[in-house]
Amino acid sequence: MQTLNIIGAGRLGKTLGRLWQQENLFRVQSIYNRSYDSALAAVEFIGAGQASDTIESMAAADYWLISCSDGEIAMIAERLADKLSEREGVIAFHCSGALSSEVLEVLRPASIASAHPVHSFAEPLRSLDSLAGSSVALEGDNLAVSALENAFTAIGCEILTIEARHKSLYHAGSVIACNYLTALVDLSLRSFAAAGIERDNALKLLQPIVLQTAQNNMTLGPERSLTGPIARGDLETVATQVESLASVDPELAFHYRQLGLACVELARRGQLSDESAASLIELLSEPMR
Ligand SMILES: NC(=O)c1ccc[n+]([C@@H]2O[C@H](COP(=O)([O-])OP(=O)(O)OC[C@H]3O[C@@H](n4cnc5c(N)ncnc54)[C@H](OP(=O)(O)O)[C@@H]3O)[C@@H](O)[C@H]2O)c1
Fold first, then answer.
1. CA proximity to 115, closest of 91, 88, 79
2. Class level of CATH domain 169-285
3. What is the pTM of this model?
4. Which of 148, 160, 179, 229 is the most buried (most CB within 10 A)?
5. Which residues in the chain are classed under CATH 3.40.50.720?
6. Spatial distance between the Cα atoms of 97 and 116, rounded to a whole number of angstroms
7. What's the gap in Å between 85 CA and the centre of ligand 1?
8. CATH code 1.10.1040.20 region(s) in the chain
9. What tens digit of pLDDT does each residue of 133-187 get?
10. Which CATH architecture has domain 2-162?
């Protein structure tokens, strides 16, 4: 069986390590984290492997996953370069959405790739069950890409191949939908709080409509999912909401107006008339008083 070493077995690294070990796809071998105790905890979670206290003491392996934080990947690659130059046919990869495989150039002659799972590894135990079905964006050398396609397919992931030069735009796409959705929920809770609605009640109130909206977007697309005052061209309601928000929280009003402009753009592709769109744009673009 092929062997896998992990540098940075945190939320993502230990989840992938355990899934691949369970599938008998890789034998997890050496694990190196910033702290030795954390490497020991990762070994326990994965149920295989050995903690290493230095990169130099890690065993030789067929695959090297560098899954530390993005800012550390280049430095780790530098430190690993000598070790990988000793062996033919090694595959080295990272899982950052923002960086391409180029950050691993120093590891050649190893075959290098980046493999970004479009999944939120907030809680590894949950990810063990929920990762299957997620897409993994792959780019890099042919050998590494084809080997990792097999590895991720074996744990139920879908594969999307992209070009290195598109990596940042691709990643921005998932950041907007995933991270900004979370920020939107927070803005919404601030507005409810200003209306005297307690957080728990607000979350309860939001759950069905947020999930339904997400589902509509996935099945109907954003153009057909947009409802509400902007989609209807209801200028009066929008003006009243801007005023109400500005009176309690000007920053909230600012975000409402910025996102409102994006809604107008979207609504124009639907039923919104040019005249209503122009009035809404004027209202939402007005400088804050
Ligand atoms: N989390 C996600 O949802 C997600 C999704 C897709 C892709 N990714 C990518 O996956 C990678 C890892 O993210 P993560 O969320 O799993 O991070 P994480 O939970 O913070 O884990 C990072 C791990 O790297 C180790 N580490 C940090 N600096 C190190 C160094 N200098 N030397 C050795 N080990 C070091 C940490 O060790 P200690 O435990 O000792 O601190 C920790 O175990 C990133 O490239 C990220 O962009 C993450």
1. 91
2. mainly alpha
3. 0.85
4. 148
5. 2-162
6. 5
7. 24
8. 169-285
9. 999 999 999 999 999 999 999 999 999 999 999 999 999 998 999 899 999 999 9
10. 3-Layer(aba) Sandwich (3.40)
